[in-house]
Design brief:
Blueprint: H1 2-61, H2 67-90, H3 99-120, H4 127-156, H5 161-175, H6 180-191, H7 205-208, H8 222-232, E1 238-248, E2 252-260, E3 265-271, E4 277-281, H9 293-306, E5 312-320, E6 323-332, E7 335-347, E8 353-357, H10 359-364, H11 377-381, E9 389-400, E10 406-416, E11 419-426, E12 432-441, E13 444-447
Parallel strand pairs: 7-9
Antiparallel strand pairs: 1-2, 2-3, 3-4, 4-8, 5-6, 6-7, 7-8, 9-10, 10-11, 11-12, 12-13
């Protein structure tokens, strides 16, 4: 009886301990879900705020008669559009649902930037510019209203964005299809109608429609595309592959959804011409940090070599949410070609490649006849402000201009006070082509 009593007490103690542990886990999960919900709610409301500011600023540009005010307003539209797209991309909404909305924000920002450049050069907006601005104003107003409606429906439907992210893609596909996908699909259908913009900006329609130069090989069928996807994802225990879209952009693709036996969903696009992997995304959570950024860099280099990209060099990198994002550019002899770009996302829990984007490379890469510099690096240095403390070495680069033409430049890195800059001097003429400010933080380097 004494032994039985002891065993009973031990069982009761274990049961109570398990209950306490389970309650702690429940509370931790609840707190994490609330944290996610608050974060996503903040991003969503900031997205609405940015879009409303775009609409207001565009309205002001059409009534101001002051070039100075126009400059301020166009600059603010550019800034607000960039911020809006950043918030949009962080929401737990299927990337397949956001193409036109994201593209609209990119173009309205870049169009405003092009008008800012005109303004600086003393060139007033043309009649076509005013027509485009009026239509862009109308579409930004439409987008703001629809986002407000979606916000209300999310509240009325008691749907938690935090829960959608936490419970994964399948939960999202089942629940959000009724409200979020429906609303964003409506927005997408409307946004596709906004005007084609013909202007000297890097995202102008007439430039995007240039035939990609990096696609080689014969046209493939769907079955061949699935085999290429399996080979690219070698090592994955693939359960099924479904076609989810027909990519009809500048690069025609098969859009595939890959289901693994680990219950992960991976998206990838395979080009119809040549069967190139255009991009791949595994939107899984990366909850731990087990490998260093330098290890991630080596993993990324090996991945590119294994997939036939041997002449690529890392340029810039960022780290966020335990993921390293690394940009690689093509090296043609001594020249780094910044247009031929491949971006990789490396999970820092196990070093897995969870993101791959070769659209820049496949669009721009081709055999080039790069000219020899007509001036020396020393001569080019004379065209840089003496206030900039230039660091060595100097790099030859091929950079894109706003009209997507390419120009051979010397890249100078320098510092003024606490700020770091990249200055690009034309290696043929000595003209200062571009200046970029480098923004460094604990997560990596960005330029603007």
């Amino acid at each position: 009886m004494k032994r039985e009593r002891i065993i009973m007490l031990l069982l009761v103690g274990a049961f109570l301990a398990a209950g306490v542990w389970g309650y702690d886990q429940y509370q931790a999960r609840k707190n994490y879900r609330n944290f996610l919900q608050n974060q996503y709610q903040r991003m969503f409301y900031e997205l609405i705020d940015h879009v409303e500011n775009i609409e207001v600023d565009l309205a002001k540009t059409m009534v101001t008669a002051s070039p100075k005010q126009s400059l301020i307003l166009f600059s603010d539209v550019w800034r607000q559009a960039f911020a809006a797209q950043e918030k949009l991309n962080q929401l737990p909404i299927s990337h397949l649902t956001l193409g036109n909305t994201s593209k609209f924000l990119t173009q309205v920002g870049d169009y405003s930037y092009s008008l800012t450049r005109k303004n600086v050069d003393g060139i007033p907006p043309s009649a076509d510019d005013w027509d485009n601005l009026e239509q862009l104003h109308n579409y930004s107003g439409y987008l703001a209203v629809q986002l407000q409606k979606l916000s209300k429906e999310l509240q009325d439907g008691n749907i938690s964005l935090g829960e959608l992210q936490e419970e994964g893609n399948r939960r999202f596909a089942r629940v959000s299809r009724e409200i979020i996908d429906r609303e964003f699909s409506t927005i997408e259908q409307e946004m596709v109608e906004y005007p084609t913009l013909i202007y000297d900006g890097p995202f102008s329609e007439h430039i995007q429609e240039i035939e990609p130069k990096g696609l080689t090989g014969e046209t493939i069928d769907y079955q061949r595309a699935t085999r290429i996807a399996r080979d690219f994802l070698k090592g994955r225990d693939i359960q099924d592959i479904d076609k989810v879209s027909n990519g009809n952009g500048t690069i025609k693709t098969y859009g595939l959804e890959v289901l693994t036996k680990e219950n992960e969903t991976i998206y990838t696009d395979i080009s119809r011409k040549g069967g190139h992997v255009v991009w791949m995304l595994n939107p899984r959570d990366v909850d731990s940090l087990n490998i260093s950024p330098s290890q991630a860099m080596e993993t990324a280099k090996e991945f590119l070599k294994k997939n036939g990209y041997s002449d690529m060099v890392p340029t810039y990198s960022m780290r966020y949410d335990n993921i390293a994002v690394i940009n690689f550019a093509y090296r043609d002899g001594p020249v780094i070609v910044y247009t031929d770009l491949i971006k990789l996302k490396v999970a820092l829990d196990n070093g897995e490649i969870i993101g791959y984007d070769a659209r820049g490379y496949l669009t721009a890469h081709h055999e080039r006849d790069i000219p020899e510099p007509k001036i020396s690096a020393k001569q080019a240095r004379e065209g840089i402000s003496m206030r900039l403390d230039v660091k060595l070495p100097v790099q030859l680069t091929l950079i894109p201009l706003e009209d997507k033409s390419e120009v051979l430049c010397y890249e100078f890195r320098g510092k003024f006070m606490e700020d770091e800059f990249l200055v690009y001097i034309n290696a043929l003429t000595g003209k200062e082509e571009r200046i970029l400010k480098m923004l460094k933080n604990e997560n990596g380097v960005q330029t603007m």
